[in-house]
Amino acid sequence: SQELEQSPQSLIVQEGKNLTINCTSSKTLYGLYWYKQKYGEGLIFLMMLQKGGEEKSHEKITAKLDEKKQQSSLHITASQPSHAGIYLCGADKGTGGTSYGKLTFGQGTILTVHP
Amino acid sequence: NAGVMQNPRHLVRRRGQEARLRCSPMKGHSHVYWYRQLPEEGLKFMVYLQKENIIDESGMPKERFSAEFPKEGPSILRIQQVVRGDSAAYFCASSHRTGLINEKLFFGSGTQLSVL
Fold this sequence. Notes:
The structure holds 2 protein chains of 2 kinds.
Chain A: E1 4-7, E2 10-14, E3 19-25, E4 32-37, E5 43-49, E6 55-58, E7 61-65, E8 71-76, E9 85-92, E10 103-105, E11 109-114
Parallel strand pairs in A: 2-11
Antiparallel strand pairs in A: 1-3, 3-8, 4-5, 4-9, 6-7, 7-8, 9-10, 9-11
Chain B: E1 5-7, E2 10-13, E3 19-24, E4 31-37, E5 43-50, E6 53-56, E7 65-68, E8 75-79, E9 88-95, E10 106-107, E11 111-115
Parallel strand pairs in B: 2-11
Antiparallel strand pairs in B: 1-3, 3-8, 4-5, 4-9, 5-6, 7-8, 9-10, 9-11
């Protein structure tokens, strides 16, 4: 089965600093999702990547999928306290380009941003 | 994730009771997924349903757990004779359709089940 490893497990940064969270797969990723979860709440969809080398940005968050489609990174520029939460990467278990909605998730990265 | 409605937000049950968790997908979505987040564990897939059909229940415990998504009304995750190990956050997600690369999965706020 596909395993996703996230690093680091937790991250504490000062407001205004940049940071990167990584997600590594043991198998080729056919659909890689990034979600944010606040404690006690649901998951907020951030971005989805499919193609090798793909990069997407939304506000101060940029996500990339490497050419081999086995590693993704999430980069936050000039972090703010509102960025604090748990970041989860999820991989679609569908293969060959079909989206199945059955995701395998990494264990999450806890981000704390100090004002 | 606005639009996927789960209730209740919090559910307390004593051992041996039944728990019913409800999920109304986003408007226009006919695919529903249930996930479970246990303490100290990641988010795990349980079951995938379409209207009146269970498509994939490979992540569902074989006993005491069942799920349905009737033609009318919300999807229901039912846990019979709950045990303390069932205490977890249960999340529902929905999508418009599968089989396409660009489908996004939207999650609800979850139901926190506590078994006393």
